[in-house]
Amino acid sequence: MKLGVTKASASSSYNGLGDQLYDLGGARPTLDLNFSSNESLVDSVTGKTLVDHTRQSSATYVDGDGVIRTAVTNLFLQSEDFSTTWTKPISVTITVNQTTAPDGSLTADLIEGTGNNNFVNQPISLVSGTTYTISAYIKSAGLSKDTFRLFGDSIQFSDNFTATSSWQRFEFTFTATATGTRNGFVTRDSSDNPLGIYIWGAQLEQSSTVGQYVKTTTAINSAPRFDHDPTTGESLGLLVEESRTNLLTYSEDLSGYTKNSITTPLDSSVINPTGSTGSYKILADSGLSGGDPGGIRINQSASSANSIVVSAFVKKSTYRYVYIGFGGLGNSFAALFDIEPGLTSNRLLGQGGNGTYTNIDAGYQNFSNDWIRIWAVGTTSGTNGPTVGMSPDSTTFAITNWTAAGTEEIYAWGLQYEDNVSFPTSYIPTEGSTVTRAADVASITGTNFSSWYNDSEGTVFSDFVVNGDNGSNQFIYDIAEGSAIAEEIFAFKGTSTDDTTHTVRSNSNIEANIASDNQSNFNAQIKSAFAVSATSTIAAVNRSLGTLAESVTMPTVDNLRIGQRSNSTFQGNFSLSRFTYWPTRLSNDTLQTITT
Amino acid sequence: MEEELLTPPIGPFFRFADAAVGMAALDDAGLLDDDQNPITASHYHALDVIGTIPRGGEWDEEGNVITEPTVLDGWHVNYVGELPAGWEQYAVTPEQPYRVFA
Known about the structure:
Structural class of chain A: mainly beta
Distance between the termini of chain A: 23 Å
Number of strands of chain B: 8
Oligomer: heterodimer
Strand content of chain A: 35-45%
Radius of gyration of chain B: 17 Å
Distance between the termini of chain B: 31 Å
Order of helices and strands of chain B: EHEEEEEEE
């Protein structure tokens, strides 16, 4: 989550290379992942998708309208290889990689059957009453066996479809009738005619509509997220986050929380941060609050010896002074906010607490429809757990008992408790269990890598915002040999106020280690350029040049990892606006220019 | 087809006898880094180490235990990806999972 970032824009005349950054660099790059502009993984130089992105769970992001969206997750495994994992009868033959797929790769398979019992399916775990959509790209194989059906829940079938000589994406939406493991995908038509079709890109998603296609192999996969500033709508680029867990079991349904001198009525018509309707409210009882645990608030008991991050989306109904924190009257930390719509001054009024506590951090983001995501970070021995409540005024920063009129009311939605961390991450919905969002991993390998990389020299440009300090180095990128760490060119953001560091390693020796000059803050734009050659290696960050390394053994590398070190450690949390590579060592002046 | 007997997918819930057994299984599966920390993500897997799962418990506002929590048997992880060898024996299917992947 990025707060209050102002993006600098380099000024330059257009010199005809097709892009301002290319002009500033003086040459066209061989790779340009312009995530914030394209809002896709497509390389602007080749027009191809060279990046593999995976995240084995769903996740949320902010769209251009400032609304919380959920990334599409493909629940089918092996979406482009029907020779493994999928189930079929003996009467069906699957021949892999028989024709060009819709993405231009030779990965579409032929499914050909005989007799009257043809199908290809996969066991899928369904939840009763939940709506799913199955889809696939299908084309005629010229075998006059072009009719088929999609099916789900083992017993629900689409109407007959007919494949044509062009790729078409067919879809079938159904609602599960039972919870458990059922079959689904493609089967013979309603007249039991045999199958004979090309097929690619099978997808099962928990949705009533078909979403963007997401490739899977041995695990489910969820689409990359291209995040936006919820206030301005600005495109921030590829969102990369570490694995995090929301330890609250109900993030949107407040009815089960402990209620302290309040009720939690449901407003089914109010627009919530997802753009759909429905949110609980917190309505104060009239009179002096009291008792145990006290205050005017909801809470859910929990304790932690760690740094705690609590966050929630709140919106004014009738009342403006809202706190979020952890603990209760005895021991707690809290941060108080003014959620008055349209307020232009700082909404964070102050931080405080009771008993044993520390305040570490607090902040907020404005969302559409007057929703505000507020958060607080701290430690406390309090055991009342995460809490959201109302304060009597703009200056009482700690949980307290006070006398309410009974009309004070706020909306509260999307509560999140992340433990042993120091900053909030994207919203993780929960409904009955604690929920973990898996980490984002992105890479370029094989010919997708060798097609743009130069072994002897090059310059890497990256434009990013690191979203918080996780107490560890956070790798922005690592150009390496396989998953080893003996041969590498990488950049990472250090902890606390540490610099962004650029390193070349060869044969496990550090050949160059170039730190920026205190130009790297969290939640601020960082433009980095790392120019590497055997005789002249240097880095610039936000125009500031590091120290030149004049003798470097160039590493032997074969892949690019984004957001992790090549050995899957040092996960980053950042928005990557752009990643660009020139196969030449750009001049120092140019490095300063492109990072301005 | 409608009456076909299905083999449910294995995972993502796994229970080991204790932390030592669990960490050894993670190590055997190549899911620990050089510092013996769990590798939580790659292109091929996601791992969420839960550890012990408490149930209930009550504390006062000073943190004193009023009612001791109970702890479910075992040491727990959630894992998705290609199944490491031998992990079938550790798979469990809780009716109400303590934690799930998003």
